[in-house]
Design a protein that fits this description.
alpha+beta, Cytochrome p450, five-stranded mixed β-sheet, 17 helices, globular
Length: 401
Amino acid sequence: MTHFDPWSAEFIAHPYDAYAELRERTPVLFHEPTGQWLVSRHRDVSALLRDRRLGRTYTHRYSHEEFGQRPPDPAHEPFHTLNDNGLLDLEAPDHTRIRRLVAKAFTPRMVQALRPTVAALADELVTGLLADGGGDLIAAVAEPLPVAVIAEMLGVPAADRGLLRPWSAAITGMFELDPGPEVARRAVAASTEFSDYLRALIRERRADPGQDLISALIAAQEDGDRLSEQEMVSTCVLLLNAGHEATVNTTGNGWWALFRNPDQLALLRSDVDAHLPTTVEELMRYDTPLQMFERWVLEDVELHGTTIPRGAELALLLGSANHDPERFTEPERLDVTRADNPHLTFGAGIHFCLGAPLARLELTESYGALLRRAPGLALVTEPTWQPGFVIRGLNELLVNT
């Protein structure tokens, strides 16, 4: 028996005891309610993220029928067109080609050039929180920052930036386990609207290029190869969705963790510059914003003496891997000075998060601004968790300054 129950509010609030049970007793387990094989240990999850016998998709090798799966609902086509042409759900050779082209535009230099902009945006948001004497840290700081940054990168006009967050929230609803028809309807509508918006923006940049990421994606080429319009649209949406969810939930979950561990918060505040880099990594490990990555089994895989057949789906439990005592000393203890921290929050292998440097930059500037300018930041009331398990975050985090 296992207490793994991704639809339970109690489990979502604290999944780590169930993870410990899985790691100890059944490190690979078929979970009937989700139809997935749960994999919970760090070394297994890390290895399988890199294993080319697995894939984010199977359609590059098999038809739906050959793989024993039902084709997607035709009514969901706008979502699948958007999602299936992005790096997250592609495999080689398409993934290799697109990632190489995107990397020519989304460069480390571009990310570092954003540092003054990110710092100014974080400072502006913290100024607003201080002026109000507090409020919901997620709504006031955590959510607006990554949306503003990606909008700045893409060259989205300020007047249109309010559109991005609702689109992102609707689309990422489809990444939860067994999303319902209303979730699918919202995701399809958002996929259509966001795609249409970006296509218009791409047309403008073709006619009048700028210094933004869309202009760079248009210009990126290798041996005469360029990104198609759909590939550019899917890339822009993925950068918003992936970057937004990771940054928002690491901010909310992380501050909640710090408030629950006042000794670590006091240590961090005693020398922000010294402890901030390790703190950002530790908060991503401690309450992982994305608890699970899914992989399809393209060829039979054996794990702990169990053969997992082709056509099965693995649930690689990142939240569990990040709390594995075989890899982390005292994993249940928050340690803002933890130096040896090979967490899997950004994934691994060919699908390692392309936006990891940007997420780290946003988190560093956000936490830095709050720690330096709001040294008395304090929790008002214990928060509650959103109902999603895969993308795990708080409803709100009420604070005063």
